[in-house]
Amino acid sequence: MQKIINIVVIVLVAFSIYFGIIVDHKRVQTIERLTESDIELQGHKAVIDEDYRRLDLKFTGRGKHIQRMQSDIASLRQRLRTVSDSLGNKIEETNFFLQQVEEMLREDIRNLNSELRTLTDDLATYKRRTNRTILDMQEVISRIEDDLKALDEQVNPEKERDRD
């Protein structure tokens, strides 16, 4: 049993020496490389932080312009909505007015057509009456001429004989 303990102790000592010298040495070298890399990266980080700060300032400045532009666009959209609503109302009013005018014109045209028919009928009646009156007057003139001839024959019977 003593031999087993001695062997275990020797193995543990050998393992600790191996771990302490070889593995620890590699670990120390790796830590040193990491430390050097960290120092180098700290410099890069400072440059990146400065670049980020400048970029952030640049975007902040542009952000103000963008915000102003966005607010201008929002106000223009609002004005456009207002104007389009107003324009829509005006168009509706104009359409309503045009419909009223169209109805009035149709009514006036109907009235004119009715008056035109009435005037046409009146003109036809007047024409017939005038034609009858002219015919009556011609008949009366014809009778008067006959009467005048008859009177003339009675008054001047000699004229009639001269003519024959």
Largest sheet: none
Given as residue ranges, the uncertain stretches (5+ residues, pLDDT < 50) are none
Report the total helices: 2
For the secondary structure, the number of strands is: 0
H/E series: HH
Q: What structural class do the secondary elements suggest? A: mainly alpha
Number of domain units? 1
Helix-residue proportion: over 70%
Q: Tell me, briefly, the overall form.
A: rod-shaped
What do the pLDDT scores average to? 84
What do these coordinates show?
The protein has 164 residues and is an all-alpha fold. It has one domain. The chain is built from 2 helices and no strands. The chain has helices at residues 2-155, 157-163. α1 (2-155) packs across α2. The protein is rod-shaped and about 200 Å long. The protein starts with a helix and ends with a helix.
List keywords for this structure.
about 160 residues; mainly alpha; 2 helices; rod-shaped
Chart the SSEs and their pairings.
Layout: H1 2-155, H2 157-163
How would you briefly describe this protein structure?
The protein has 164 residues and is mainly alpha-helical. It is built from two helices and no strands. The longest helix has 154 residues, at 2-155.
